[in-house]
Amino acid sequence: MVTTTLTTRIPRSWVIPTAEAAERRPGNARILKTLTVLLCANIFLQRLAIPVAGAQLQLILPITIIGVAVMLSHGDIQLNIGRLRAYLLAMTACCAAALVAFLRELDDSAITSLVLLFATYIPLCFGLAPADAKAIFPRILDRFVTLTTILAGIALFQFAIQLVGWKYTDVLTVIPYDFRMHGFNTSYPVQYGSDLYKSNAFICLEPSFCSQFLAFGVVVCILRNGNWWRYLLYVMALLSTVSGTGVVLLAIALVLLSVHKGARFATTALIGVGIVVLVLSFTPAASIFAERATETSSNNSSGSLRFVQPYTRTWDALDKDPATVVFGQGPGFADRDATAFFLRTSLPLNYALLPKLVLEYGILGTVAFLAFVLSMFVRGSPSFVLSGSVVVFYSVLSGGLLSPVVTTLGMLLVSWYTVTPEDERWNRGRPSPRAAQPSAALLAPAQHEV
């Protein structure tokens, strides 16, 4: 085992091994079933919402909170003391920044955004006991590979039936409008004026989300030494999304894997990528991806709206006064700015984690919240490859601050399995919740004697 300053007990092997059968407790089957249900909801229900007070609450958030409550009632999860402290520090800093914004009577501040921030991250204050985490982690990764394989199959099916003449239509329009998430580019063509639409597997918020989940599928499949045919399926489905964010995520993950695995894996990965690029160069898709690679230079492109303009607009907003730099413009400002931008230009501005934090909570809230991010996804991680991939997904490629789709995926793939020396000391000093509950076999004799 090797220890770093950011992570502890990272296996030297690049493949995550299956835990020995002796380490699996009887209750682990129930835990695995609950985690699988949460994973299914996160992947296949991400477009569903609940109307609340004129706004929308993504269905995944109440499902996750209910799952946490059920697991707590069975003693399957416990408070993670390190993350709880980081959570309280981050929320205190954000509340202080929000209070200053409210006292300054700034426009576009919303208390509901602050409340949603609290609710979104409460589940990440919990986690599995170290022994359970070690046994369940590889098994939930196997479930994730299975679920993303299904997602890849649906994405390919959606694209293939268009090639044989089916005219694209959003099949989820059968669900009432108010119960479908708004504000996402769910359906759009591979090129302007084309009748061929990017694949989002029907159920993903956007093709970009579909591509990122598929990229995670590739990474986890590699970590679990999956079958070769899955990689072919993943790559074909990833290309059907015609989205660059999944490619970026996969490229970063392959770099992390190469650092971890060494020169042999790096060479193999380069050869594989070279073959894919070579085959792609003989198809019409080559010109489409070439355009996507340079689109950040255009103000109307999704690349600019995601990776350039949110940062330039944040920089301009912070140039107003020192109080804005320290405390921000108040909760919800970035969302309202993006809405106003859309009404003016009909273009969707996508604020990633850092510009949204700085705009809404200033330097004070940003520093405290980034410390919480490290405690969620990095410190004590069982796999720095997964941690790095989740951090990039969460902080750069998606508007992840108030997105339960993003935070729940990070929770189910990394956060709930982190183990630090502090966690082990905490667990040694307290009884196991399961051990504290007497079994029915032990209770029966006592009841008979009475």
Molecular structure report:
Keywords: Membrane, Transmembrane, Transmembrane helix. It comes from Parafrankia colletiae. This is O-antigen ligase like membrane protein. The chain is built from 19 helices and four strands. With 450 residues, the protein is mainly alpha-helical. The protein has one domain. The strands form two sheets. It has a two-stranded antiparallel sheet. A two-stranded antiparallel ribbon has the order 3-4. The protein is globular.
Brief descriptors of the model:
single chain; 450 residues; mainly alpha; two-stranded antiparallel sheet; 4 strands; disordered N terminus
Quick structural overview:
The protein has helices at residues 28-44, 60-73, 81-103, 111-121, 130-163, 207-223, 228-240, 244-261, 263-281, 285-293, 302-307, 309-317, 322-327, 333-345, 353-377, 384-397, 404-413, 421-428, 440-449, and strands at residues 49-52, 55-58, 78-79, 126-127. With 450 residues, the chain is mainly α.
